[in-house]
């Protein structure tokens, strides 16, 4: 059989275009962590744990709505145009949040931005997995996570640059802090800056084609074959078309809700839900959303907090880059097991440091170590697994429902953290996450299949039959 000569320039274009949605999510995910030190006093919510939790997590309500919207529309409308539309919605959110003068409108536009994220974050991995060569799918789907982490680094660097440039040394305990430029204006620039990459994202998604597997499902065979030929040549296109057609022919031409309730499908859905909730309740979102609070508790001033937060972003980029290189070599299961066990041990140490009130560099060091492990394992590998395990006929809808579960987990964690912290204390809070990670390690050891180096059709045959 003739060796396929892949058009990697084109494959990278498809991957980067879709993964720009991950960049926007990464930016939005952590911009709150730096901006909250300034918008909370501006809106007068710095002494209200409930309002702090709502201000941090309101975007996740939009994420849930966006995920449900995808469930209702993705099989009918396809991947490309929904992802592209999310870029325009994100631009509206960026400007709206930046210009908000009341806590009400701040949350309205945060929810709008969350709606955009809810669309792109579950469709981008699906789009990539349905377009790239099977033997390199793990690598290219992991690019989405790499771009999430580049977005994190960009957001944290912009936050630090803005805050440091206008830091007068007046802290939040001073009555004069409310008049600081960062409190009145700086946080607006932090939120508004993401409008530029949002526009780039929209333009890129206009350029790229619709998902090949969606085109085949909707009997647009000529378009699908042209895209496949551009990816790997005529021979590759014919071979892939036959494989995809066989799968689609075996499946229903249209997915209905009842398909998701079939016993074999429910088994896969429950596995996906568990992996999704484990990633969220591993506690890492607390580090990203409440990094300023963690480092303030560790004894750092505003400039020190912002610098440490920026270093977190750098760590995520480095280790998610390593994940791209190893996910197809080491496999998904080994990385997930290593991640959950390591994080459970690290949380134990962090909890001990807070219990003994050991402040400064030790807390920073173990926090960065935890971020590194997460960025290498749970963060990218979850998306790879979710993009692979669902059968073709339900993939888009199942990813949408799983994304909804992700946002429920994220919202419940983020909204509840200030209250849990007040009642349990810092040490017990981190030990709780350690127990969750340890339980995840044990359960994944028994239930998680390995999917590396398998085509989507092979995975479907093994899981569904």
From TrEMBL:
TM ranges: 12-32, 52-74, 81-99, 105-125, 146-166, 186-208, 268-292, 304-328, 335-355, 361-386, 398-418, 430-448
UniProt membrane topology term: Multi-pass membrane protein
Compartment annotation: Membrane
Gene Ontology cellular-component terms listed: membrane
Record InterPro entries: MFS_dom (IPR020846), MFS_sugar_transport-like (IPR005828), MFS_trans_sf (IPR036259), Myo-inositol_Transporter (IPR050814), Sugar/inositol_transpt (IPR003663), Sugar_transporter_CS (IPR005829)
Residues of the Major facilitator superfamily (MFS) profile domain: 14-452
Any Pfam family matching the protein: Sugar_tr
Keywords of this entry: Membrane, Transmembrane, Transmembrane helix, Transport
Keyword Ion transport: no
Molecular function as annotated in GO: transmembrane transporter activity
Family, as annotated: Belongs to the major facilitator superfamily. Sugar transporter (TC 2.A.1.1) family.
Name used for this protein in its record: D-xylose-proton symporter
Organism: termite gut metagenome
């Amino acid at each position: 059989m003739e060796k396929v000569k892949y058009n990697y320039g084109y494959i990278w274009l498809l991957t980067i275009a879709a993964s720009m949605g991950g960049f926007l999510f990464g930016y939005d995910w952590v911009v709150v962590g730096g901006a909250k030190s300034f918008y909370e006093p501006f809106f007068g919510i710095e002494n209200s744990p409930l309002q702090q939790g709502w201000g941090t997590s309101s975007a996740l309500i939009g994420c849930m709505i966006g995920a449900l919207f995808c469930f209702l529309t993705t099989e009918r409308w396809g991947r490309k145009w929904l992802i592209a539309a999310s870029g325009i919605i994100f631009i509206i959110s960026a400007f709206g949040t930046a210009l908000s003068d009341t806590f009400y409108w701040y949350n309205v536009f945060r929810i709008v931005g969350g709606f955009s994220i809810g669309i792109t974050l579950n469709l981008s991995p699906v789009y990539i997995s349905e377009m790239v060569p099977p033997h390199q799918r793990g690598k290219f789907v992991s690019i989405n996570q790499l771009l999430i982490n580049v977005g994190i680094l960009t957001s944290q660097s912009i936050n630090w640059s803005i805050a440091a440039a206008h830091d007068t040394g007046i802290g939040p305990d001073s009555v004069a802090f409310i008049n600081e430029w960062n409190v009145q204006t700086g946080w607006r620039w932090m939120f508004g800056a993401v409008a530029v990459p949002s526009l780039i994202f929209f333009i890129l998604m206009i350029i790229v084609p619709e998902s090949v597997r969606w085109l085949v499902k909707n009997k647009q065979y000529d378009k699908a074959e042209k895209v496949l030929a551009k990816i790997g040549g005529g021979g590759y296109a014919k071979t892939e078309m036959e494989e995809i057609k066989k799968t689609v022919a075996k499946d229903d031409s249209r997915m209905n809700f009842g398909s998701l309730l079939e016993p074999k499908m429910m088994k896969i859905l429950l596995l996906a839900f568990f992996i999704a909730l484990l990633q969220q309740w591993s506690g890492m979102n607390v580090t990203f959303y409440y990094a300023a609070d963690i480092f303030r508790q560790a004894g750092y001033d505003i400039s020190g907090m912002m610098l440490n937060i920026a270093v977190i972003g750098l760590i995520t980029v480095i280790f998610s880059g390593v994940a791209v290189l190893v996910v197809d070599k080491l496999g998904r299961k080994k990385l997930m097991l290593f991640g959950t066990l390591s994080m459970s041990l690290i949380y134990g140490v962090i909890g001990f440091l807070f219990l003994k009130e050991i402040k400064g560099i030790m807390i920073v060091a173990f926090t960065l170590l935890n971020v590194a492990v997460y960025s290498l394992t749970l963060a990218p590998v979850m998306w790879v697994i979710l993009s692979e395990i669902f059968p073709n006929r339900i993939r888009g809808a199942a990813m949408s429902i799983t994304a909804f579960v992700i946002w429920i987990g994220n919202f419940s964690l983020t909204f509840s953290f200030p209250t849990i912290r007040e009642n349990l204390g810092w040490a017990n809070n981190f030990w709780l996450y350690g127990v969750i990670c340890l339980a995840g390690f044990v359960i994944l050891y028994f239930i998680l299949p390995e999917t590396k180096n398998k085509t989507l059709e092979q995975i479907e045959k093994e899981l569904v039959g």
